Amino acid sequence: MRVLICEDNALIAMDLREMVEEAGHEAVGTATTSDICFDRAQAMRADIVLVDLNLADGRTGPVLVKRLAGEGIPSIVVSGELDYLPEDHGALALLEKPVSYVSLRDTLSRHDRSAKT
């Protein structure tokens, strides 16, 4: 599965990339703002996007999740601020930071569309 990581903290993005790849998926890139992430998700044909709620351009993650869902691109929110997410968020799953490898691996496995076809 092709996974795009939308996270503005370089160390966290690097950790997520390693976990994604260790789980057997392809990390296709990273983005630090919602607009860049949205554009890259489409251009890179991401199967799923890991989205932090608070990005370099502010608390734009909730809007990004809805924009991605509107384009048929699923997302998983990975954030320490899940309380700021509205109930109608549109994400497939929510993971609280710091996220464990097992939680991320299992969540990605549950939502791996390519494994189900």
From TrEMBL:
PTM annotation (4-aspartylphosphate): residues: 52
PROSITE patterns (alphabetical): RESPONSE_REGULATORY
Residue ranges of every copy of the Response regulatory domain listed in the record: 2-112
Keywords: Phosphoprotein
Database matches in Pfam families: Response_reg
InterPro entries: Bact_response_regulator (IPR050595), CheY-like_superfamily (IPR011006), Sig_transdc_resp-reg_receiver (IPR001789)
Name of the protein in its database record: Response regulator receiver domain-containing protein
Organism: Silicimonas algicola
